[in-house]
Amino acid sequence: MVCTLNYTDVIQKALKTLDKKNFAFIIHSGSFPAAPGENTGFGSINSNGGKEVIDFAKGIFNAIQLGPAGKTKSCDSSPYTGTIFSGNPLFIDLKQLTTPEWNNILSVETYNEIVEGNPNKDTNKTAYSYIYKRQNEALEEAWNNFKVNGSDALKKEFESYKLENDYWLDKDSLYEALSIEHGNDYWPLWDSETDKNLFNPKSNEEKIEYSKRINEISKKYSDTIEQYKFVQFVLNKQNEKTGEYAKKAGIKMIADRQVAFSDRDTWAYQSLFLEGWMLGCPPDYFSKDGQAWGFPVMNPDRMYNEDGSLDEGGILLKNLYKKMFKENPGGVRIDHIVGLIDPWVYKAGKKPRIEQGAGRLYSSPEHPELKKYAIARLEDLDPELEADKEKRVKTLSKEQIHRYGRLIEKIVIAAAEEEGLDKDAIVCEDLGTLTNPVAAVMKEYGLQGMRLTQFVVPEKPEHPYRCRNIDARSWAMVGTHDNEPIAMWANSMINTHEGYLHVKNLVEDLFADCDNKDDIITQMTRDAEFLKQTKLVEIFASKAENIQIFFTDFFNIYDVYNRPGTSGDENWSLRLPDNFKELTPINLAKILKLAIIARGKAFAEKHQDVINELSNIE
Prior knowledge:
By secondary structure, the protein is of the alpha/beta class. The chain has 24 helices and 12 strands.
């Protein structure tokens, strides 16, 4: 019989056969390729290169998982330290500003000069420091031209945008003005204590004084403030246009909410943070002193009122999530969900170690300073375990679980529902330490976590990242933006004892009906390509309803996007090459075929027609 289905039809049929609801392509916005003659030094989903990726993904993927979209600093390209409300101006497609749609507010000459001057225009790497400076210059030109030549319609839209977003935009733009006033954009270094605390008054007198100062700065730097707001308006308008384009292609966008607050956010909302405490991770195998992230911690006393309603801190977070769900109807990935439910906190200036006062904010009833926030009681703790151990809280009542989950229920889920979405629009990054309270909250509210198969511990038969243990309501993947490509991982496993243990488990889970298991083990322990392919088969053969794959893994790019703990222009710089369509991606049809076969003889026989169709297109 001649197959009449095209490639994407067969792929979708196979994904449905394997009970996959979502297949997401992971790529951060800066990593998008550029169309010919449009490489400014940084990627954007709003660019023509971004649209080419959407067109490519159409029919194969139904979602694109983006990275955090906040404004980053000139000295730090990490998207995970960006602002929580303001978008990253680097994501603005300058090309569009040279067109009549935007009243040609950016000259073609300026645009071409930026493209021509890009030091990385012939590589698949961003030129962060270069484009950060040039993008700002181009947007200043666009603003000055907009004031003179912008259409009445666009100016009316701009005014409406400012009113709709004043609850965050006014503070963020004022910070920009103060950064110029003080000659740097790191507020702890500002000379004026008044300017450091404009939104953190301690008395009515200070409130009056600070209000006068806000008016003074607003008048002095009115054009700077308006320009900041204009840039956010342009970005928002482009994002909306791209969202409509993606929707027509059957692609939904999934946003990424980082656990951090930027300097700008910390300054604007410092009255809502727990003074003297920072968020981090406890010591573990990888870090004997723990991870001192230096991120502020929301003050529990400012999150909720006595009647259970949201206080100012809770309202802030809910507004944030409402904005994210509204702009990204595909959902939101929450980075480090532990930080919302059972955060590890440490004293500012100290290491995140127990002996230096660190502990879990809501699980430390024995701690002299944190016990006032404890949900777990002394009798709920295992006295044999220290404060940093996952299983330390051994008992929890239903009421305690709901107290741990208040932020999830009253803020995150409530925000999703108010924007017409359900809890399946919430993707929880729960990799690494997962304490009993976090596990209990996720189970209680039916939240979807992640299963990263590259991190499976092969010596533990019941490890949750192993194929046969992956639950249906989860997102499975071989790696994220923080991992080496699966090909690199596979190469490191060849002819090693650890690799043998991984291979043994894979053969048990995926080749159960094969008579030559020993031969397969021998081959896979020596053949990196076979091991890599099998790790990809594993995520599709698993029960996980949702699959994610990072762009390096899909396109067989043997390079790393992020090396945790490193900084500078080289990190976070990898892009999908401009000629990505000429690359050889993974053989998805073959992988899906093998995943169906791996489900067992009976399953394969039942779906032999799908196997045949996949064979015809692989």
